[in-house]
Amino acid sequence: MSDEWTDLGSAEALAERSLQRVEAEAGPIALSCVNGTFGAVHSACNHVGGPLGQGTLAGEYIVCPWHQWKFHRLTGIGEPGYEADAVPAFPVKVENGRVLVNIKAATKRTKAPHEPHPLARAVSRVEGPVRVVGLSTTAMQNEAPRYSGSDHLLESALAAAKAQGCETQLIKLSQLQFRACEGFYSKSARACTWPCSITQMDDKDELTEVYEALVHWADVVLIATPIRWGQASSLYFKMAERLNCVQNQVTTHNRVLIRNKVASFIIVGGQDNVQGVAGQMLGFFAELGFHFPQFPYIAHSRGWSAEDMENNVAAVRDSKELHDGAGHLAIRAVELARRLLATDPAVAVERGGRKAHRLIDTLRPA
Ligand code: FES
Predict the structure, then answer these.
(1) Which atom of ligand 1 is nearest the CA belonging to 45?
(2) Entry pTM
(3) What is the pLDDT of residues 74-86, one digit of tens each?
(4) 160 lies in the same domain as 11
(5) Contact 67 CB / ligand 1 (< 6 Å)
(6) Are residues 173 and 60 in the same domain?
């Protein structure tokens, strides 16, 4: 065997698995074997480094386990239509029952120019008045809307912000078609990307509007939720899981996307657990990097045994106190936003929260 060839192991043993990751001096290799023919390509995917050797085979293509990009198992070339993307492929041979690859004769990695997603642009506040986005998270049929106490209070809060000279915007999650988080993060922290992997691969996914507002547009975010079985609404959690990609940037890139922004909450339930709902929302939005005004939420609940729902509705709808409270919440949030905007945005917080530690690098992309 000449120096050019690296011994990967017994052909008999390596043929037992159709696709596997094998370590070599040039880095990890995705070694495939179909009908006795071995193929060897570099295991790091062109996209964001997913481990091709841990993927699956679809015919002659290796499918990346992270976001399903495909590369030919023998040539390393991307699937039809994406040939300009290629991972290095290594000549392979079997001699004396051993699998050998020629590392030095690898083909080149080539990357097609991919237009970055618009959300990926640098976060830079455009001059102008304080901008306030209201996020309604109650689930409802838009063709047959019903009264929502949390939405009604959110409207009052936005009206108060507008009266303060702010630009306002209302986003109703119930009007957006968006996919649930598919847990890319659970495969690897680096598989959860910014912009969200789903957003990048599915141009019909409408959570883009929320990302655009939270990361790029708003100074203040007012989130309104009903209480459902002691928790915020299911749509709130569907959104929150998709916001993992914002928080995960701190983990993977020490990149804080949310700076000098304020969050406040409106929580309305026929029954109880206001403090539990507020605790989750405060904890989550703190992890994203938001600031909170003094007394960062208003809430209303008539208690566990209040099953007379029509009275619960009336209690919110007709309460001047609650609607005034929603307005004052917005004003507190806007005042804090003004103070934050007057500070130097270049002052960055060194790794905060539970991401104070750096990502352990045992998760090297493969
Ligand atoms: S498809 Fe391979 S890392 Fe995204």
Answers:
(1) 2
(2) 0.89
(3) 999 999 999 999 9
(4) no
(5) yes
(6) no
